[in-house]
Amino acid sequence: MYFAKLEFFNPFSRSIKDRAVFNLVMNALKRGDINGTRRLFEATSGNVGISMAAISNIFGVEFRAYLPKPTPKATVSLLKVLGAEVVKTDFEVIDREMIEFVRDEAEKVGAVNLNQFENDDNFEAHHRYTAREIDEQLRSIGASPDVIIAGVGTSGHIAGIAKYFKERYDTKVIGVIPAKGEKIPGIKRLETKPKWFFDAGIDEVVEVTQREAIEGSIQVARREGILIGLSSGAVVSAFERVRDKYSGTAILIFPDDAFKYVEVFEKYLCEDQ
């Protein structure tokens, strides 16, 4: 038996990142970090930027998004619709160098860099809220998770969820990353040293190619009628690879939907003809 957690029902970015960004911004406001500057700078490859732009508008805060080179055009357009200032960088991935670059840019002009990659408010959002919500939903049908499969990005959601369930159940947690040399929006290889991953007790890591991620998304679309994003497709592909090793109830975390990645799907479909 398996279930998918559909995080694209969150309202701002239609992704799981709404949870982290809301916690990041609200805690920063409570501490008074944003009240003086009213400007936020953030390195983002997509959903965090869209969510931060939306929530910044609600609180009257200016937002500048720093994007790596491979960011989908749809993400850029959505950020501009939301009124964000967009800075396209030459970084191929968001690594330590890019994170430090954005931090320095913020310091130069007195802006705030909430830094989703190192800010514990990211981890807390998923440990306190996302994981508890999954637990409550499962308990409502008399179930508990035997295995959870999730992508590794900042590692906030996989680590927060893993810590919560490993404190309460005998749950195995599987992380999904891009294969070497591959790029899948929203997930990253472990060489980027995601802050919370290595202390979360992840049981296994599965590498997935971009083609496998696309095919995972298409598989769900054609079988279930649900349009899921590429990191979600990567989770599906990883699950198909390991499902015979694990029995019981499996939970797949689907971070977002397909609509930001239409260009990627279009290219794949053209090549496949």
Give the overall pLDDT as a whole number: 95
Count of helical stretches: 9
**Category from helices, strands and their pairing:** alpha/beta
- Spatial extent as radius of gyration: 18 Å
Major β-sheet annotation: 5 strands, parallel
Q: How helix-rich are the residues, as a percent range?
A: 40-55%
Overall strand count: 8
**General shape:** globular
Q: Provide the spatial order of strands within the biggest beta sheet.
A: 1-8-5-6-7
Quickly count the domains.
Answer: 2
Short summary of the structure?
44% of the residues lie in helices and 15% in strands. The protein has 273 residues and is an alpha/beta fold. It has a 5-stranded parallel β-sheet with strand order 1-8-5-6-7. The chain has a 3-stranded parallel β-sheet with strand order 2-3-4, sandwiched between helices.
